[in-house]
Amino acid sequence: MNQKSSAAIYCAAAVAAAVPGAAQAQADEPWKWEAAIYGYFPAIGGTTAFPAAAGGSTIDVSTGDVVDALKFAFMGQIEARKGKWGVWSDLVYADFGASRQGTRNFTVNHQPVSVDANMVLDVKTWIWSLAGIYNLESTPELNADLLFGARLLDMQQTLSWSLSNDIPALPGRSGTASVDLVNWDAIVGVKGRDHFGADHRWFLPYYLDIGTGESKFTWQINAGVGYRFDWGVDIRQLALPGLRLQVRQSSGKPRHERPGRRRGLPLVEAEFESDARKMP
């Protein structure tokens, strides 16, 4: 069984384990739902080898040098819990795209070349985490959950180039190539918030996970400060956002891609509850 199948099965098993646990909670306890839309300025780094010829020649591009423009991004979370058990999911989508004129920030077959190139690189990235959660502690001062599940990295990269002169290793001066990467990783971690101040309106949210699988290693960490309003909405400023996936090197795949999050922006979280007993 390959790593992708193993990680997918692990993810399904983690969520399936949470559902029976929730069902065993007290019958009169309602389902609680929580949703959040948040924002960062994502960044990526690493090197991608794009196939440029039938004989195996590649054009190697540093995404950190070429991609400097975020065209669109969406980030959100949703959580459902009943008693101590629940299900949590996080989704990040980012579309980068930029061009370089007369650049030499690339190599051919990992060797530098003495020609200029016009390049256009587009990178679309999906990062989806799905996990079962179990509440470790829930008091007015502290809430802490254990989480166990999987994370998907789906990255599509397309490079178009036009060279100023011929290169023997390439069949022509211009071309387009694409590289796709799909990685599944098992993750385990903790999340929660520490409340303080009058009426416990202020809180310190935190999140930490680590994992491995098709990636060599992955981790995600968030921490910050937040305030809860009477109308059920939280405003957070995340001062320590970060997400890293170190990809194993293999032919036709990006090497050491590191999609990341940085420059935390205010996070708005709306919470609402539904009581199954009140539904027809």
Strand content: over 45%
Low-confidence stretches: 248-280
The number of helical runs is: 2
How many strand elements?
A: 17
- SSE pattern: HEEEEHEEEEEEEEEEEEE
- What oligomeric assembly is this protein in? single chain
CATH superfamily: OPCA outer membrane adhesin/invasin
Output the strand order for the largest sheet: 1-5-6-9-10-11-12-13-14-17
Envelope shape: elongated
| Rg, Å, rounded | 22 Å
Q: What is the CATH architecture assignment?
A: Beta Barrel
What helical percentage do the residues reach? under 10%
The average pLDDT is: 76
- Head-to-tail CA distance between termini: 45 Å
Largest beta-sheet characterization: 10 strands, antiparallel, barrel
CATH topology: Lipocalin
Structural class: mainly beta
- Count of discrete domains: 1
Write down the CATH class: Mainly Beta
Please describe the structure with a list of short key phrases separated by commas or semicolons.
Lipocalin, elongated, mainly beta, four-stranded antiparallel beta sheet, 280 residues
Topology, pairings included?
Layout: H1 3-23, E1 32-37, E2 41-43, E3 47-51, E4 58-62, H2 63-66, E5 70-82, E6 85-103, E7 106-108, E8 111-112, E9 117-138, E10 142-163, E11 174-196, E12 202-213, E13 215-228, E14 233-238, E15 242-247, E16 260-262, E17 266-273
Antiparallel strand pairs: 1-5, 1-17, 2-16, 3-4, 4-7, 5-6, 6-9, 7-8, 9-10, 10-11, 11-12, 12-13, 13-14, 13-15, 14-17
